[in-house]
Amino acid sequence: MLIYLRVLKESFNFAINALKNNKLRTFLSLVGVTIGIFSIIAVLAAVDSLKKEIEGSISSLDNSTIYLGRFSFGPTEIPRWKSEQFPDVTYEEYQMVKRSVPNLYTAAYTLNVASETIKFEDKSVSNVEIGAVSFEYYDIESLQIAYGRFFNESESNSGSNVLVLGDEIANSLFSSPEQSLGKKVRLYGRKFTVIGVLKKEGSGLFGNSKDTAVFLPVNAARKVFGQNNKSLFPFIIIKPEKGIDNNEFIALLKQRMRQHRGLKPGEIDDFFVNQLQGFADFIDNITGQMNVIGLLISGFSLLVGGFGIANIMFVSVKERTNLIGIQKSLGAKNKFILFQFLFEAVILAIIGGLIGLGLVFIASVIASQFTGDFQFILSIENIFLGTFISAIIGLISGILPAISASRLDPVEAIRTGM
């Protein structure tokens, strides 16, 4: 064990001397490894950060949550021209789902309406996202109330002119969010009473956030836009009870919808059942493909770096041929010479890898300053992965030079080096 520690120490010293004595050559050799590790870990860090941000954006929703509507969240075999003819889900169908679908925890009816301007006295905020939802949305989305409350079942069903403000909207219209409670704001040319303010959430992946949203009873919006407005894109958001078989639940849901719409056997469903678990799997698939493509592209840089390390090691063997001959003449075994050069190659590669990791860290800090709430993360796993890949590249690149050094004849080595 001690002899290997000694070999490691000597190899480290040789590597450091190579860096000091041949700065330009070593720099050019390590650039490839540095760029390769930087590329690979930067790609992995970016994809991990993107995936974490997406997961954070949908973390408030359970993966079993279902969106029922005439639009599909992902690829579908149904032609677009045909799906565009599908009818919207109706408020009556939302009531039917609540009434007749077994193992249902809750369901909410929502309308996707256009952004609007909201006013209070002489202040106004434009491009406000409007969430026209039924009262059950509060439990499905796990909304957090900072002041006041969310609208109740009675207010939701009757379409009362009440609303809940996002934190940013409340701060823009009032001197403090708590002062907004009970105040009347103007929306759609009507007066709405503020009954609650949401906790500050921060911006999401694509800039969307409940901080810039306003929630009002869906039936209040239906009074404004009418019952059959094709521009509203309604959805029924459904949350099954925990612990049930989701596939069985979806099958029963489809059966109830087909019965309600009078679809005959053989006719295709004229609605889509979108499950968040499917969306999460779709995101995993996309990020996985991004990882593979990024790794393939970055692999070429790392390949160049490996050739650079192999080149410097062959030169190192050539320069130290005389020393190798002396070591072998004094009794050094082939294994000792082999490990000596392997350790040196690995150490040089790790140095290049650590520089690459340092550059990734610096780049992630700088990038995070320009992307607001989106944070680039260099995880401990990626740091270890970068170091491990560097060591493997050093090992592979150094194996041939190390073997050639260990097989040198001591007499010929001394004579060649003289």
From TrEMBL:
The keyword Transmembrane applies. Residues 296-410 form the ABC3 transporter permease C-terminal domain. The chain crosses the membrane at residues 27-47, 292-315, 336-363, 383-405. It comes from the Bacteria. It is a multi-pass membrane protein. One of its GO terms (molecular function) is transmembrane transporter activity. Keywords: Cell membrane, Membrane, Transmembrane, Transmembrane helix. Residues 26-255 form the MacB-like periplasmic core domain. It holds the Pfam family FtsX. It is found in: Cell membrane. GO terms for cellular component: plasma membrane. InterPro entries: ABC3_permease_C, MacB_PCD, Macrolide_Exporter_MacB. Its main location: membrane. PANTHER family: ABC TRANSPORTER PERMEASE (PTHR30572:SF15), MEMBRANE COMPONENT OF TRANSPORTER-RELATED (PTHR30572). This is ABC transporter permease.
